[in-house]
Write a structure and sequence with these properties.
- The chain has a single domain, classed as TIM Barrel (Alpha-Beta Barrel).
- The chain is α/β, with parallel strands linked by helices.
- α1 packs parallel to α10 and α3 packs parallel to α5.
- The model has no long low-confidence stretch (mean pLDDT 95).
- Strands 3-4-5-8-9-10-11-12 form an eight-stranded parallel sheet, covered by helices on one side.
């Protein structure tokens, strides 16, 4: 495994992390503790040390599964990133919670779920610029940093909107990392966000690096996803067009004999701004495959 500094945080993160939205049950599968234990054990054995989760991946469900695991392992071996601003209400349904008091409650609930006294990276989660520009919120969060509940602050910018304002303002609110959707099918961050991150010394976590699995190479243009899978709600025409583009990428850009998913992860990591990618994984085999992408760098 290879490691990179996460911006100016001082954290050394594995270039391949573990995304855990799937643990919340919105990707067509419900996880039990033994499955999560096996995934994280395998990740640890391969040198992965970064786990990314959120309060709304289930009602703190992903965090609880991770917390139960961490309670039986060495907490200091892992860098745990979670998020705030939403409350799970059902499949892909969220309540927005952005006041300082509401977020403080979310933080304490997340720490209880994670069975940890601190979170390594606490991220503003896909909020609007108006929700971001809240001095009381950031003052409260700074106090939690001083109290040791949070090691570092970050911003997970929304997939909608440019994200420029929040990226430019991150340092002024004490945030040291940006999480952004970035993959071979979505290169928009290359225009503004990634250059700004380099300019301001912000670490970058690339989420959805496999474009919701489309860049895994497993799906053809006419693919149909089962009920309960997030991808079922994707626009059919957009999905068809993206999978057609994936087929062209596979034919023209992926070297013969190279696993497409591993190529796609390494593609993200070749940008100098990107610290780590955080692909999801549903089983041990996917963890092994994801980790192998580091060998292509």
């Amino acid at each position: 495994m290879k490691y990179r500094k996460l911006g100016s945080t001082g954290l050394e993160v594995s270039v391949i992390g573990v995304g855990t939205w799937q643990f919340g049950g919105e990707w067509g599968k419900n996880f039990v503790q033994d499955e999560v234990d096996a995934i994280l054990d395998q990740a640890g054995e391969l040198g992965l040390n970064l786990i990314d989760t959120a309060e709304c991946y289930g009602d703190h469900l992903s965090e609880r599964l991770i917390g139960d695991y961490l309670a039986r392992r060495k907490r200091e071996d892992w860098i745990v990133a979670t998020k705030f601003g939403h409350h799970f209400q059902g499949h892909l349904e969220r309540e927005q919670l952005w006041s300082a008091d509401e977020v403080l409650k979310q933080l304490d609930d997340s720490l209880r779920a994670l069975k940890s006294e601190y979170v390594d990276l606490y991220q503003f989660h896909s909020g609007t610029d108006q929700q971001f520009d809240n001095d009381k919120l950031w003052s409260m969060l700074d106090r939690q940093v001083q109290a040791g509940k949070i090691r570092h602050l970050g911003v997970s910018i929304s997939a909608s909107g440019s994200g420029r304002h929040q990226t430019e303002s991150a340092s002024s609110v004490g945030a040291r990392a940006i999480q952004v959707v970035y993959n071979r099918l979505d290169r928009q961050p290359e225009e503004e966000i990634l250059p700004l991150c380099l300019q301001h010394q912000l670490g970058v976590l690339a989420r959805v690096p496999l474009a919701s699995g489309y860049l895994s190479g497993k799906y053809k243009p006419g693919a149909v996803f089962r009920q309960g899978d997030v991808r079922e709600r994707h626009n059919p025409d957009t999905r068809r067009n993206q999978l057609q583009e994936v087929a062209e990428i596979a034919a023209n850009e992926v070297p013969p004999g190279t696993d497409m998913a591993q190529w796609a992860l390494a593609w993200c990591l070749r940008h100098s701004a990107v610290s780590a990618v955080i692909p999801g994984c549903k089983n041990v085999q996917q963890v092994i495959s994801n980790a192998a992408a580091a060998e292509l760098l």
